[in-house]
Specification:
Length: 234
């Protein structure tokens, strides 16, 4: 069985490849900070804005972009479901749909009960990024008429909330649904996806011929140069 050996990451501007990298990890989430750091090394500055799909919408990436002063038009994993109302319809009792009282630091369950703060924990993810999660627990779920659809676990319902991530998602949502955000999202679809489509479909480049990260990186560099030259000549 053939499996992808390299995760190719590119930055584009008007379908011109401005930066590229290859990574061994199959997911995109943890590639963004390193990829943009190399962009900064190449051009001496961070990009003014970054538009990316939901594969990059993590707390670590939002935090990195904010620290760099880069405007982030980056979706989170359920952005489209949220905008279409699918998530609310499918998961009406999900924690993001519960009311949060900021002054009293408590959530209100669907039946109007308080969900009190029972503790906060801090942990580091695989890349060493620190995340803080707070737990909230209902006072009493026994006898609740909607327990079966709200909470299937034993005992009282407990939810875990990452407040900083929720804040980043709120900011991302406001940007993404703005006029500028909609324009950036449309541009991303016809910008970077077209580049990959041209290389793979039109130029029939679907497999690397060399082996090893160093050689494969050089090989894709030639592909990027050829794409850019052809794009400029068109």
């Amino acid at each position: 069985q053939l499996k992808a050996g390299y995760n190719v990451q590119i930055s584009t501007n008007d379908q011109i490849i401005t930066n590229y990298d290859l990574y061994p990890n199959p997911t995109d989430t943890r590639t963004l900070p390193d990829h943009l750091s190399k962009f900064q090394y190449l051009y001496g500055q961070s990009p003014e804005s970054v538009t990316a799909d939901s594969g990059y919408g993590s707390e670590e990436n939002y935090h990195f972009l904010e620290q760099q002063g880069t405007t982030a038009y980056v979706k989170y994993n359920y952005f489209h479901q949220e905008q279409r109302g699918i998530r609310l319809k499918k998961y009406p009792f999900a924690k993001e749909h519960l009311f949060y009282n900021d002054e009293q630091d408590c959530y209100i369950c669907p039946m109007g009960q308080r969900m009190n703060n029972i503790g906060t924990t801090t942990k580091n993810n695989e890349s060493g990024f620190e995340q803080t999660v707070t737990k909230y627990q209902t006072v009493r779920c026994t006898g609740c008429p909607i327990r079966a659809v709200c909470h299937n676990g034993k005992g009282e319902r407990i939810i875990e909330v990452n407040h900083r991530l929720n804040l980043y998602k709120q900011r991302a949502r406001e940007r993404l649904i703005s006029d500028d955000g909609i324009a950036h999202r449309k541009q991303r679809a016809q910008d970077v996806e077209t580049v990959f489509g041209n290389i793979k479909q039109n130029k029939h480049f679907r497999r690397f011929l060399l082996r090893g990260t160093k050689k494969v990186t050089i090989e894709f560099g030639f592909i990027a140069i050829a794409h850019n030259l052809r794009k400029k000549a068109a």
